[in-house]
Amino acid sequence: MLLLIFAAVLFFWLVVGAVQFLICFITPKLRRYSLSAALWWAFLGPCSIAWISLAALVVISRHLVVEEAHFGRFHLPTLSSGMGWSYFILGSVFSMAIATVVARVHQTLILRLTFALFRLYATVISGGIGSVFGWCFSFWVLGLQMRYSWVLAAIGMLAFIGGFGVIAYRAAGSLRGDPPATATWISQEEFEGA
Description:
This protein is an all-alpha fold. Helices cover 75% and strands 0% of the residues. It starts with a helix and ends with a helix. 21% of the residues are buried.
């Protein structure tokens, strides 16, 4: 059951990241940030699981100390609800800070790839983002419980993956913006694919 909760949390953040990717990709001024924005949201999934695991460990260890060690007759201090909210807020802030650093490093690194390598990278990552939408479509189709829905789900999954990959391959030049002015190890021609 716990693994299903973790999978649901991860999938939720992947869906949010995929929607953010679409919003940035559709908006021309934000297109160059679409991959990093999707990564920012997707990175919150593992961070959330880490914070949930830590909170669960605290709850389980408290239960083991109180119930199993027979300390129930002693007065143990209770934590106020403010402690729970502060844990949630600090966990969210730290997760966002970590995701911001990862997205910023990602944005810096993709500017230093040659065009051919970046085009391949953008195609694979966008295909993965398409698979998130493919899973959503598959869950919806399978939920309809119609005959041969698994065939339609498989075709939809392949269409989303292939469609997102092809679109990213063709639009790779607009997915990363202008070349860096300093600290680069590729030439202008390599950056533009000329």
